[in-house]
Amino acid sequence: MTTTPSVNRTAPKPWQWLVLALGLCLLLFVLVAEVIAPAVRESSTPSVPPAAAPDTALVQRGAYLARLGNCAQCHTARGGADYAGGNALLTPFGRVYPGNLTPHPTTGLGAWSAADFRRAMHQGIRPDGRVLNPAFPYTSYTRITQSDSDALFAFLRSLPAVDAPHRAHELPWPLGTQTALTAWRWLHFSEAPDSPGITEADTGPSARRGAALVQGLGHCAECHTPRNRLGGLRSSQAWSGALMPDGLWYAPALNDNTEAGVAGWDTADIATLLTHGQRRQAYVAGPMAEVVRNSTQYLNAADAESIALYLQTLAPATPAAVKSPAIADTTPSSPLGAKIYENQCAQCHGKQGEGVADAYPALAGNRSVLMGNTNNLTLTVLRGGYGPSTSGKPQPHGMPPYQLSLSDAEVAAVLSFIRKSWGNAAAPVTEFDINKIRNSPIR
Ligand code: HEC
Ligand code: HEC
Ligand code: HEC
Predict the structure, then answer these.
(1) Do 122 and 220 belong together in one domain?
(2) Are residues 398 and 434 in the same domain?
(3) 274 C-alpha vs ligand 1 centroid, how far in Å?
(4) Residues 69 and 100 in one domain
(5) Is the CB of 288 under 6 A from ligand 2?
């Protein structure tokens, strides 16, 4: 027996109405979910940028945290779009390129969920399971809390999506391989335990909060703690000072008051150094000037004070080992150095190396001048120096570069002179020391 189609073309039966109604409800529900709950679907529909206004308070907190973590420093190329990928980072093993953090669906983080992002920050692992190169300082960022990670991610999602593909790292085989990275992690990386959010746990400024900021998002150890041959941080020598990977700038010891330790300082002075870039004799320079320019100048008062309180705990609070300028102790180390100083430097730094308050650093009794490592002095004289422009110090004075006007022997002579005058008593600098830095291919 055959069923005639006409039978089915009669008026719908009640159960068919029910199916239709349910279908419509479902459709309506999907539409509503599209409009009112885009956040819920964030991870499953990456190509749709957040349409509804994201939680502005969360985004603002994320923007603040991005500055604290100085993400833009590495993830923004010179002249490029913000956070769309950075210039090559020189590591002792090769060049590594920081990728695109904007929400572009294919070249950025558009397809990532908040959980994916947290995993990258906390464990250094991408959503596709690949482990990340530790030139991305997740060795410090691992301390990030869930809520800070979510705020940072919300901020990054709020950026305009930029189509900027990753550049391939330039690492000799097998250094960039997943096997090598996995081995490295096994030796040098430990995931931080989940900590209660520092932001929530501490109400006022505290050394504990400062520790979380310095060791976590601030990633200060990445420069101020020495590394072993494989590039792992030597935790047993934490904060004891290190040459930067380019072999040029020296990040002085934060646990030694004759280098960058601030144990004897007022908390307010330390906070000012971090937010304005200069305080008393300390004038930040080189990579630290970048840190102040892009990151620490934006610290709010409570966070700056917290960091100051923590930094004070790093070195024993002995009376500052820095000597005050002796009255007339000017036995010059060489007549050449004295002559250059008189002609080229004294107009700013003073006849007795006394400097000018809030403008030119004193060189007499200045620990940066007396430090064992003389790279920073040499770089300052060869390349000149400008402090970071900050809201507290918008137009810092600068120092001209001398690489064209002074020879290696002359730079060595003037530096040896300032290290031995006005009560200063540090070892001389050799022509060879200057030559090494002048001829470095790295700018
Ligand atoms: C010192 C430089 C540096 C800083 C500072 C830095 N990053 Fe990176 N980041 C890198 C490098 C290099 C990579 C590439 C690592 C790789 O591909 O193995 C990277 C990769 C990433 C990735 C993985 C991207 C991808 O598609 O694989 C994320 C996410 C990330 N960074 C987020 C951040 C955030 C958020 C901050 C600020 C809190 C930050 N980074 C600060 C250097 C840096
Ligand atoms: C990119 C590398 C880098 C990072 C990250 C970094 N520093 Fe530095 N820091 C340096 C270098 C290089 C110097 C030496 C130049 C100078 O004296 O300013 C320095 C100097 C300092 C000084 C001494 C300044 C002076 O002039 O006496 C202090 C204090 C300091 N850093 C604190 C910090 C703190 C706190 C952090 C984390 C928020 C930090 N640094 C992160 C590289 C870095
Ligand atoms: C036009 C004024 C000017 C002249 C001339 C000048 N300097 Fe400077 N010097 C400065 C300023 C400003 C700074 C701080 C730079 C900074 O913040 O990075 C500085 C920094 C320094 C530092 C680093 C001090 C520290 O605390 O980190 C040394 C060393 C130094 N100068 C030596 C010299 C020598 C040697 C000469 C002569 C060959 C010289 N300067 C000429 C203005 C000058």
Answers:
(1) no
(2) yes
(3) 23
(4) yes
(5) yes
With a 6 A CB cut-off, is 376 part of the ligand 2 pocket?
yes
Q: Is the CB of 287 under 6 A from ligand 2?
A: yes
Residue 259 CA, ligand 2 centroid: distance in Å: 11
Whole-number Å distance, alpha carbon 88 to ligand 2 midpoint, is: 21
Q: CA-to-CA distance for 179 and 186, rounded, in angstroms?
A: 11
CATH number, position 228: 1.10.760
301 with 371, same domain?
Answer: no
Q: Which of 130, 158, 188 is the last residue of a domain?
A: 188
| Site to substitute for ligand 2 among 288, 386, 393, 437, most atoms within 8 A of C-beta | 288
CA-144 nearest atom, ligand 1: 38
Cα-atom radius of gyration of the chain, to the nearest Å? 28
Point out the ligand nearest to the CA of residue 387.
3
Cα angle vertex 321, ends 317, 326, to 5°? 145
Find out whether the beta carbon of 134 lies less than 6 Å from any atom of ligand 2. Answer: no
The residues, any chain, with a CB within 8 Å of residue 313's CB and separated by 6 or more, are 207, 263
Distance in Å, CA 127 to ligand 1 centroid: 14
| Stated pTM of the model | 0.88
Boundaries of domain holding 88: 56-188
In a domain, 163, yes or no: yes
- Residue 167's Cβ-count burial label (10 Å; 0-12, 13-18, 19+) is middle
Number of domains in the chain: 3
> Are residues 118 and 146 in contact, defined by beta-carbon separation less than 8 angstroms?
yes
CA 293 to CA 391: how far, in whole Å? 10
Q: Would 46 be classed as within a structural domain?
A: no
Query: Do residues 182 and 94 share a domain?
Result: yes
Ligand 2, atom 15, lies closest to the CA of 285
Residue 221 lies in a domain: yes
Does 177 share its domain with 224?
Answer: no
The atom of ligand 1 lying closest to the CA of 166 is 26
Does residue 398 have its Cβ closer than 6 Å to ligand 3?
yes
Beta bridge partners of 91: 94
Q: Give me ligand 2 centre to Cα 248, in Å.
A: 14
What confidence tens digit (pLDDT) does each residue in 16-50 have? Answer: 655 555 544 434 333 333 333 333 333 334 444 55
Mean pLDDT value of segment 166-192 = 94
pLDDT in tens, 362-399: 999 999 999 999 999 999 999 999 899 999 999 999 99
Same domain, yes or no, for 184 and 209? Answer: no
- Location of structure tokens 């999506």: 161
Q: 6 lies in a domain? A: no
